[in-house]
Amino acid sequence: MDTNTNNADAGHATNSSESKDDETSLRTITKGPLGYIGNDAIDAPVPEVRATTEERFRDSDVSNLTHVVIQVTVSRQRDIFRYIGYKYDWNQPGPFWHFLGKMVTKALLDDNAELRELNFVAIGRREFIASTTPMWRAAVEAKKAADGAELPPLRVIEVNFKKPQPGKPLEFTWAPARPLFAAKIKQSNTQAGNPDLDHQGTQVVGGIVLNRRLTP
After folding, report:
1. Positions of the region Disordered (predicted)?
2. Residue 67 sits in which domain range?
3. H helices within 25-85, ranges in order?
């Protein structure tokens, strides 16, 4: 009898069982009346989050950002929400994207600021979620109230979440967005004739139609 093989098999079975136990202990998003799932379906406090950037961007003023593009893989989202205590649901991405936005504003802006998702694009297993900031939405409302008012120039950043580490705060890196992102957001504004981008089916990343996700 090969005891090493038996021990290896036993260890594999134990690890598999522990993995299943970990999954079953995770919370799931809360459904409202008639099964409605809102953006606030994740009932958990926003954890401690650290935002880092390159030295050359550290003195940048982030208070006047207009848009944020979060890029994150499906597997990284699973890791992040397992860290928080939730089971990621690929079929209901809205609450998870909204919670990622909360983490970004907590680290970069303030707890009361809210990013509002406007659209997304999936390229392979990586998803790009574009959102507006309170500053941009206020400027849009001012333009509506005073026809002809100027909108501020687009200031877009990209955000990448790092893999969660046990016992450490969550962390993401940010940097000014590549010109392609701002160009596509500006193009969407022009095509839609609606500067607040409160619509679906536009584009953020070169030629890829939004709201198309691959099965994980």
Report:
1. 1-32
2. 44-192
3. 74-84
Distance CA 179, CA 114 (A): 24
Residue 30 falls within a domain, yes or no?
no
CB 208 within 8 Å of CB 214 = no
Residue-wise pLDDT tens digits, 121-170: 888 889 999 999 999 889 888 888 887 677 888 999 999 999 999 999 99
pLDDT digits (tens, 9 = 90+) for 71-105: 999 999 999 999 999 999 988 899 999 999 999 99
For residue 201, being part of any structural domain is answered with no
Show contacts of 2-5: CB within 8 Å, 24+ apart.
Answer: none
Q: Give the C-alpha separation, 117 to 120, whole Å.
A: 8
Contact 38, 91 (CB under 8 A): no
- Model confidence pLDDT, tens digit, residues 140-154: 888 888 876 778 889
Of 135, 148, 172, 159, residue with least CA distance to 71: 159
Q: Which residues partner with 132 through β-bridges?
A: 67, 116
3-state secondary structure of 16: helix
Q: How many domains does the chain have?
A: 1
Output the pTM of the full model.
0.77
Considering the domain boundaries, does residue 69 fall inside one? yes
CA–CA distance, 121 with 99 (Å, rounded to integer):
18
